[in-house]
Amino acid sequence: MTVTWEELGWERLADGVGRCRLPGWDCTAGLVLGADAALMVDAGSSLDEGARLREGARRLAGRRVTHLALTHPHFDHVFGAAAFTGAEVYGAYGTAGTGALFAPGGQGRQALRADAVAEGLDSRAAREAAEALSPVRHEVRGEQPLDLGGGRRVLLADAGPGHTGHDLAVLVPGSPDVLFCGDLVEESGEPQAGPDAVPSHWPAALDRLLELGGDDALYVPGHGAVVDAAFVRVQRDALAARFGVSR
User: Fold this and answer.
1) Residues 226, 220: contact at Cβ < 8 Å?
2) pLDDT tens digits, one per residue of 7-27
3) How far apart are CA 35 and CA 152, in angstroms?
4) Vertex 116, ends 110 and 122: CA angle to 5°?
């Protein structure tokens, strides 16, 4: 039986494109449907959350998720990745080597687990997700198109550094264009700059997003409501002022 995006608690953004605004950390996961494949953008903050996203995507697409794009290596965006068995996993260039994040037993996994617990994730769920974390098989340097079939093509773009050293954006051309920004853009709170942020490059990363999306795109932040280009410009200028970056 066919279900709608809204029936599953998802927000439809364009034909074959939607997102789920997850509870807890108000984190976004996106879904792009093609005739032959399905792309998930980010995977949630735990294996259970990833499994719920996987099931919702299966019901909407009528098939399993074939591609998974991780916008940046923070637990609330990657800890559900192992739920997407068999998916081709993409990240920005350098993600696979980030503190051995995606290497079994690596220091990066331990740091990610500790951060998740500090932010309130159950310690057992954090351990299980860290141990099962799926490796990034495809690092995007510059831009990489993906053909999902039926005329549906998306563009993966290495848009950072900014929020982290490795920020990936996903552009879905259509009517309207939809740009998944990860945490380079945040709407429900001030953009968070942790120890892995690169503040001096963050405003330039938002310039890159604006080049990709243009004036009429829907910009999907990592946290919060969908915004427009004007919002991104205001946030870019605020970040430049906050971090003392000359424009």
Assistant:
1) yes
2) 999 999 999 999 999 998 999
3) 8
4) 110
